[in-house]
Amino acid sequence: MTLAALPRRRWRSALELGCATGVLTAALTERADVVLGTDISAAPLERARLRAPAARFVQAAMPAEWPSGRWDLVVVSEVGYYLSPADLDATVDRVLASLDDDGVLLACHWRHPDDDAVSDGDTVDAQLAARWPRPALVRHVEDDFVLSVLPGAAVTSVARAEGLVR
């Protein structure tokens, strides 16, 4: 579902925050020229390196240790609810500062309780939507998760990009 929600097939540079063991990272390497996965913990990064050898990985705490570079795809999946509201706001600021105009933020979060989380998926999704300067291209809600694709300044709808509407 996550990959299907992306408005383009191919990306120049993808940043995945909280990549864990690299399951999604491996799929992103098939869709992006460059992929950087980050995680706060070293142990899952070792597994991610084995699972997605075409990607690069950095151990980093977000948003304080934000990687340098420009991205046309930033993925925040299953990690936003571990950030304080202030850190989530700072993460949005960092994404906006490093996102190419034709890029998107893809956010996907579990909607069930997690005792280790600071908030929940619905709260994270609402905070992202409130802070993002444009409405979501995609917002998909199921019992288990909420997924949003938030566009950069130059992103148009898929129908407009394909010339189906003006």
Structure commentary:
This protein is an alpha/beta fold and 166 residues long. Helix 3 (85-98) crosses helix 4 (121-131). A 7-stranded mixed β-sheet has the order 3-2-1-4-5-7-6, with helices on both faces. The chain is globular and about 50 Å long. 28% of the residues lie in helices and 30% in strands. Strand 2, helix 2 and strand 3 (56-59) form a beta-alpha-beta unit.
**Hey, roughly how much beta strand do the residues contain?**
25-35%
Q: What gyration radius follows from the Cα positions, in whole Å?
A: 15 Å
Helix content: 25-40%
- Per the principal axes of the C-alpha atoms, what is the gross shape? globular
**How many strands appear in the DSSP assignment?**
7
Order of helices and strands: EHEHEEHEHEEH
Instruction: Count helical runs.
Output: 5
Class per helix and strand makeup: alpha/beta
- Quick check: average pLDDT? 96
- Give the termini separation: 28 Å
**Major beta sheet, strand line-up:** 3-2-1-4-5-7-6
Q: Which residues sit in consecutive blocks of at least 5 with pLDDT less than 50?
A: none
Main beta-sheet annotation:
7 strands, mixed
Brief overview:
The protein is an alpha/beta fold and 166 residues long.
